[in-house]
Amino acid sequence: MHIEDQTLLEIDDLTVAFGDGAGSVRAVENVSLSVAAGEIYALVGESGCGKSTLAYSMLQIVPQPGRVIGGDIRFRGRGMVAMPKRDLNALRGAELAMVFQGAMNAFNPVVTIGAQVDHILQAHPEVFSDLKEGREHFDHLLELVQLSPKRIWKAFESQLSGGMKQRVAIAVALLLKPSVVILDEPTTALDVLNQRLVIDILKDLHRDLGVTIVFVTHDLAVVAEVATRVAVMYAGRLVETGTVEEIFKAERRHPYVEALINAIPSVLDAGLTVRPIGGAVPNLADLPAGCRFAPRCRSVEDLCRQTEPPLLGDGGGHLVACHVANREIVPMEVSKA
Amino acid sequence: MSLLDVQNVTHTYDTGNGRPVLHNVELSTQEGEIVALVGESGCGKTTLGRLIAGLHEPSGGSISFEGSDIAGLKGKRRTEWRRQVQMVHQDPYGSLNPGLTIGSTLAPGLLRHKLANRRTVQAEMITLLQQVGLDATPAFLQRYPHQLSGGQRQRASIARAISLQPKLIVADEVTSMLDVSMRVAILDLLLSFQRERGIGFVFISHDFGVVRYFAQGGRIAVMFYGHIVEEGPVEELIKTPSHPYTHMLLQAIPVPDPVLVRKRDAEGGGSERLVGEPATKGCVFSNRCPLVQDVCRKEAPPLEDIGTGHRTACFFHDEIPPLKHLAADGASPQAARS
Amino acid sequence: MVSYVLKRLAMSLLIIYIVISLSFFMIRMMPGNPMAALESQLRMQGGLSEVEIQQRINAIYSVTPDAPVWEQYLRYVWGAVRGDLGRPITNPGTTVVAVIAEALPWTIMVVAVSLIISFIIGIAVGAVMAAFQNSRFSQAMTFVVSFLSAVPSYLVAIALLYVLTSVYQVFPSGGAYGVDVTPGFNGQYLLSVLYHAILPIAASVITSFGGWALGMKGSAVSVLGAEYVRAAESRGLSDRRITQSYVGRNSMLPMVTQLALSVGFMFGGSVFIETYFQYPGIGFYMIQSVGQRDYSLMMGCFVLITVSVIITNLLVDLLYPLVDPRIANPAARARATDQAADPDQEVLPAGGSMA
Amino acid sequence: TAGTAGGGSPAGNSGGDAAGTAAAGDSSKFLTFFPCCSWGTTWSYNPYNVNQLGIQNDFISMRLAIVKSPSLTEFIPQLADKWAVENGKLNVHLRDDAKWQDGTPVTSKDLHDTAILNGLRGDGFWSDITGVDVVDEKTVAFTLKEGQPESLAKLDILNSIRPYPSSVYGKLVTDGLKQDVVKYFRTLQQSPEQAAKLPEFKRMGDAFKNLAQLKVDKLIGNGPFRLENITTKEAKLVKWTDFWDADKIKFAGIRYLNGATQTVYPQLFSGNVHLSNVYMPPPILNRWKTTPDSNTALPLGFGFTIVFNSNQKPLDSKAVRQALAYVIPRQQISEAAYGTDEAAGGTWKEVNTGISPTLEQIYLKPEQLEKLNKYPVDPAKATALLQGEGFTKKGDQWIKPDGKPFTLTFTANAETTDIVTSFNSAAKALTAFGIKSEVNATSGAQQDADQHNGDFQAGMAFVGGSNPIAMYNSLLGPGYNFTRLGNYAGKRGIGFGPKKNVPGLGEVDLASTIDRQARTVEPGDEMNKQVWNWAQLVNEEVPYIWYATKVYQFPFSTKEFTNWPPLGDNKSSELWDIISADMNGGLSLAMQQGYITPK
Amino acid sequence: MRFLSDLWRILRHDKGALIGGAIVLLYCLAAIFGPIFVEVGNEQDASQAYLAPSWEHPLGTDSLGQGVLSQIIVGTRPIMIVGVLSAVITVFIGVAIGLLTGYVGGAADTVIMRITDIFLTIPGLPLIIVLASVINTTNPVVLALILSITAWAGLARAIRSQAMSLRSREFVEAAKLQGVSLSNMIGRQLLPNVGPYVAIHFLLAITGAIYASVGLFLLGIAPISGNNWGIMINLAMAQGALYTTDSAFYLFSPMAAIVILQVAFVFFSRALDSVFNPRLRVQ
Ligand SMILES: Nc1ncnc2c1ncn2[C@@H]1O[C@H](COP(=O)(O)OP(=O)(O)OP(=O)(O)O)[C@@H](O)[C@H]1O
Ligand SMILES: Nc1ncnc2c1ncn2[C@@H]1O[C@H](COP(=O)(O)OP(=O)(O)OP(=O)(O)O)[C@@H](O)[C@H]1O
Ligand SMILES: [Mg+2]
Ligand SMILES: [Mg+2]
């Protein structure tokens, strides 16, 4: 992990909106975070709180009618929002790669996986000048994800099972040796064994290839298993970020994160302490005043219903956006380093 | 007399590739008992659940409810059985008819089984909705599924299942499509019916955490490609699995505690053979079993009792190593905090 | 695969058999019998006395009418099997098959050319509409194209006739080629053929490309929204590659499937168009023979139209794997389309569902 | 009886001056002629085929002679230049210079074989003769049946036989066949029932079948034009330079157009079509009138009639039919279809006799015509008649004695749009009177079948020709009325009869009487007498109503062709009268006489 | 009610559909009330033929001197009756067969599907022409039956495949577990889910039937009796309207009547599509 602490990807006060005018919703609002080289960065949150949107914006592929309306994303210091398409295309796949949520629909159904791999190789001749070399690399990656190259090359997407597709998608993402791989819910919808397999693969890849991983999930157990750093989102906003230990073990934390952790029945014990979080994620088009989590929060106070809490740290990288949790600490705005 | 008796059931789908999805499955439950079915994706859990609920007829074997084979039920008795076995599906989006209001989803069953008449049906439905913790107003009955959240929908479909006062509910991955925040509430709701009304459950899940939470005091049956490979009381099976497959499943569960994870990872332990096809000869698991021996490849081990209602289909169940990280005390994140 | 082809073949033969039988019974169900029809035909021709008319009819129909129906039926079916659909009532000097053999190529030419042209134009327009989905241009095009596809082809034919053969006498008002050219492979003849085919082709293109355009637009829009297109983008593929191999190919597939189905519709529509442009194709003969009660020719045309459609469908089915490589086995496609018909994906042919 | 040389001088005289002026014209021009609907989608060069090519006519193949119109006794020679009746035989002599277009001479064998073959299909002249024989190279003798009126036989033979080359069809003529034909027709003249059972008849049928199915690849005519090429839309006729009068024909050929009626209009307006004979609805006619170089010739009396089904209640009642005659505004319904334009012939002529106005003038005296009921539009009379029959009027609707409303359906051939228009008009008038009426326009075949079967209330019929008795026969005779032969044998058709009290004849079997008269009554006093008898019957009983005359015109353009046959005061002339009765024959005649020359 | 409010919501935003819907409504009103208010008179006057538009005859007059507009209005009813009747037959047969075979399955399904195969393959329009010429009727019910002869098959196919996928949908299974009757299953559970498709198909079936029936009258295959647009065009064509400028209104008015109706139907069906489209409904 020689490149540790070098910031690769920096999200700066990003706001992404879907639609415009009255019906528009801000799926991501004023989010700032930075991913350092060598990290495994987890984005966590309930369904619909903007995780995928944030992930898409990292590659500038937010689906219509979504668009970035504020802030920027910087990769190795280069702003991507205003980047020309040509430069973006050079980055995509080669430097930043993405595995889509579900991975079920990530492949062209009428072209073999092999041909799609070739397309990628041809689009980035700077990575592998020789097609054969690239193909061999892919074979190697397939072995890493425990798949047999022979079968995959000629297969159509429809001939693969869900777990296999997920792994092929991971291999494809790694094809051009990108420095960052973004995975959107790579373990969701997989059963325990496939999930474990993917977790192990991610860890192995991280260890062996030194690739930086950003992954989106709503499963805290997976976070605990894989991540080094975590950002928790709620209704389009960041509510807490920190190292995985800080998230799981620190005293000061966001009631939402706490509630999330408490809501999981664990196999580790009979789990009589689990408690559901009441209510549901608010509709982004109809947000409550003040803290967005206030309606569901156990430790809610009047202040929470009036002002949105800022994201504050106590000096380290552990930032929390909660009036109650932050009461004790010296307010210190997060540095934009 | 047990409530449900699955005897030697084999099933092959007409539309499938001809391979049986279930092989000689034996399972029985008592009234008010919870039996959990676990296993990897595609192992036949849902299929077994659907057979139990009578949505398909098994291609072989028989399923008896309260002592009588459901295939032979006729007339009134069939209606009665139909009422007593219900199912709650996995997908809260798919299990409610998008074109019908909640009211018209709930009413036909009540009317059909004469649990209400035209006059009382509305009041009856409101009571039901109250029982599942929904906003029980007449206006709510007029809502369409798309106007409800996932959790509300799942509650509505639970309301539909309990509306017929069943004795057995097949709950197929009822929480897997729900947000984490809502899962426990739904499980608690179902549990309350088990406790208060003595409704028995066939609870399908691949999440041991959920199973352990829900099926306390009940039993777990572990399935592998259509075979029940191990069956036993919840705590015992989780703490001391007697089949390498169960062991593998438990071992694979991600642990929501980074400290524990580090500790476990440091101890090593590979993830080989997590996935793969079943063996066609001998023990079905022999292809992927870390403990496999020659005999396993030749001969299929029978599902044998190894003490107090705990059965396993492994020749070498004694040799299964203990699950270290699960056994560790105070390992839960909740515990870690305190 | 082989068994699938055999099955399809058997089905096709069954349908042809049914159509032939239908045709046999229809001919006998027609008001009056063929002899009466001939009698009327002769009387309308004029200049013949009643006795003359009876003489001719007796002479021409001296053989079968008294045979039992089943015998006639067997004879008819057996004849049809050997490619003999009898003789036109109005023209016993030739055979139905010979008449059709002369007419069919014209129809096939017009149908094929207009299908291809309208397909190409429609796909192009649809693709452009999808590419500029929310633009004014696309909205205007959607309107124009929906409008055109809703207009019955025969009305367009009448309008074209009005403008181009009456107000401005630019095109001939009928026929397949001029009388001044000698049929054969010579430039003059080919030009004449082209000149005569332009209006019928134009009429069917004008009314049918809109359907393709709308279908293509729908298909392309849904493909554009598909995850794998964004996935391809995320991999840094060039726009050209994405357009060609990802969007183009996938949105074309349902169109190609539709192409086969529309053949039947085009043959149907050609009946109107050929009649209005007096284009001597099979549809023209069919309507003419309806008017003249030439039942055997009419049903012969019907049988042949059906057979053409069946053969096209069969060919498309067998060739489909070339287009969609996932389908090595057409049976799989049949099953897939059987089970997962997505109504949103359906392209409705112009004029609704009468295909 | 002495032989009469035919209509005297062909060519020469009448066409003389015309030929002179034509010299300046461009003789490479083609005349475009659009007579409409001459051949169907399929055609055959074989004249014995049902669907013979409609242009196998006097442009390409000549008849023996053409009858002058409306005369029944004067002929203009064509292929035959001399004929005479001697010893009960009609000897026909063919022109010496007549040749087939393949270069061989037209001989008596061609005519003889054609006569035999025509017998197979029952051509009418066989009811006049008992045999046909070759006399010499150019002469054929037709043996007349005993008691056969000469003039009618001449009409049947000269005006209708168009010889075909024996080289093509003659191989089907054998001695046996000839004997069969002769025997069959001898028997037929005595007893039709017996004739139909003869083995000869069966053999003739077989022979005809072969003949009809004979595939003929090439048209060999003997007329002034050769068929060069043909499509469904057009035939190209090229002047045949070996024709005997070829030098009188001043243009290179004829573009003979075929196809839907309406397509001719724009071509007429633009002058692309030089001559046509199609029905022109009033607005078209108006436009034609204002077109430069436009001319119109008007034909003789042809007409359309509304036929009632006298076999169906309540139309079986004479009073009801008369009532309808008082209500149907004949002039109005005629003008709806043909307009009012005087230039177009003042289309409507009142007819109360059931035959054309021209024939009325020839065969009936003015005082006779005066005596007939004119059926002016007169609702009061109609009301009285209906009330007399027990009809009542309830509100706007007449109610039949049986309590049901009196409604009327007109059956028409949808292709004859002028009739549909007229009938629509009639239906509206009837509806206004209180008899709810509508028009059912079906295919021609359906309409024909319905009228033969008697499945109609009011139908349509086209009436024409120059023989008044034949005209009556075509409606009241067994063809349409109590049919005896063929498919409709035993059907009642228009159901007028079967027996009626005919003025001057007494109670007779109507259909057979008029049919017999059509074959036996010669022009002259006898014919005048009979016509008067029938006229009174039709006028009184109203089995049909004549409502339209001059239903089509001959528009022709002088833009490119001049020297058309002259038009008289009433836009007609002897030649135009022939043309209107026999279009192709008349035109061919005009061309042979040097008319129609390019400008 | 919800349907209507949805419809209105969509129509408000889609001008084309709104206008389409309004026109369809107008035609329906014309079909229902037209013949009551407008009359094609029985008097006729050849001197009034082919008049240019005027206040009295906004679309001019025909060959009989009668108003073209009033004929068009009166001619709306027979066309709409045949169109709607045929669509009802098509949809009824298609939906009934599709749902039953799709849901129940089994041998009956196989047999019926082979039959639909046959009807799907036989080209519809030629068959209609053949039948219409044999049967030669003016009876609207028979005509509608002829027009639906093959149209139902495509619908049955589509409905069946939807029923088949619905059959294994969880809410259908849940209803089955509730013990609902077959009629409830088909009518309440399945039908509403294919409703959108059926509704849109219904409109398209109307346009298809109108297309074909006008064609039949136009070609003179169906008997020309009474007053409808196809007959009007037929008569106009036959009277050479194509070739005189005076009669342009006479010829083109009925054509416009058909085109406007057809286009209106298509645009209106687009709105229906949006109303029913579950994707748009979810949010
Ligand atoms: N194409 C779109 N049009 C409009 N709104 C959208 C669109 N895509 C997403 N959104 C909105 O953006 C919000 C965030 O969506 P996003 O997919 O990023 O959530 P997520 O956290 O990834 O959820 P999940 O766990 O379900 O994947 C959602 O509330 C959704 O309503
Ligand atoms: N209707 C069907 N037709 C054919 N095959 C089926 C059908 N339903 C399920 N199968 C097959 O049967 C096997 C077992 O399926 P089942 O749904 O019972 O598994 P499961 O254990 O519930 O899996 P999951 O955890 O993914 O829900 C799978 O291989 C599946 O592909
Ligand atoms: Mg997401
Ligand atoms: Mg399952």
UniProtKB/TrEMBL annotation, chain A:
Subcellular location, record wording: Cell membrane
GO biological process, one term: peptide transport
Family annotation (InterPro entries): AAA+_ATPase, ABC_Ni/Peptide_Import, ABC_transporter-like_ATP-bd, ABC_transporter-like_CS, Oligopep_ABC_C, P-loop_NTPase
Annotated signal peptide: none
Alphabetically ordered keywords of this record: ATP-binding, Cell membrane, Membrane, Nucleotide-binding, Transport
Domain (ABC transporter): residue spans on this chain: 9-260
A GO term, aspect molecular function: ATP binding
Keyword Nucleus: no
CC annotations in GO: plasma membrane
Membrane topology, record value: Peripheral membrane protein
Family: Belongs to the ABC transporter superfamily.
Descriptive protein name: ABC transporter ATP-binding protein
Organism whose genome encodes this protein: Kribbella speibonae
TrEMBL record, chain B:
InterPro entries found in the cross-reference section: AAA+_ATPase, ABC_transp_ATP-bind, ABC_transporter-like_ATP-bd, ABC_transporter-like_CS, Oligopep_ABC_C, P-loop_NTPase
Record flagged with keyword Signal: no
Gene Ontology terms, MF aspect: ATP binding; ATP hydrolysis activity
Keywords: ATP-binding, Nucleotide-binding, Transport
Entry's Gene Ontology BP terms: peptide transport; transmembrane transport
Segments forming domain ABC transporter: 4-250
Pfam families (alphabetical): ABC_tran (PF00005), oligo_HPY (PF08352)
Name of the protein in its database record: ABC transporter ATP-binding protein
Native source species: Kribbella speibonae
UniProtKB/TrEMBL annotation, chain C:
Keyword Transmembrane helix: yes
Annotated spans, Disordered: 334-355
The keyword Nucleus belongs to this UniProt entry's keyword annotation: no
One record GO biological process: transmembrane transport
Domain ABC transmembrane type-1: 104-320
Parts of the chain that traverse the membrane: 12-30, 106-132, 144-164, 193-214, 259-277, 297-320
Predominant subcellular localization, coarse grouping: membrane
Cellular component terms per the entry's GO annotation: plasma membrane
Subcellular location: Cell membrane; Membrane
Membrane topology (UniProt): Multi-pass membrane protein
CDD domains for this protein: TM_PBP2
Keywords tagged on the record: Membrane, Transmembrane, Transmembrane helix, Transport
Protein family (similarity comment): Belongs to the binding-protein-dependent transport system permease family.
Protein name: ABC transporter permease
Originating organism: Kribbella speibonae
TrEMBL record, chain E:
Any one GO CC term of the record: plasma membrane
InterPro entries: BP-dependent_transpt_permease (IPR050366), MetI-like (IPR000515), MetI-like_sf (IPR035906), OppC_N (IPR025966)
Membrane topology: Multi-pass membrane protein
Family annotation (PROSITE patterns): ABC_TM1 (PS50928)
Gene3D superfamilies to which the protein is assigned, alphabetical: MetI-like
Keyword Metal-binding belongs to the record: no
A Pfam family the protein falls into: OppC_N
Main localization, broad class: membrane
Keywords carried by this UniProt record: Cell membrane, Membrane, Transmembrane, Transmembrane helix, Transport
GO molecular function, one term: dipeptide transmembrane transporter activity
All residue ranges annotated as the ABC transmembrane type-1 domain in the record: 76-273
Transmembrane domains' residue ranges: 16-38, 79-103, 115-135, 141-159, 198-222, 249-272
UniProt-annotated location(s): Cell membrane
Protein family membership: Belongs to the binding-protein-dependent transport system permease family.
Name of this protein: ABC transporter permease
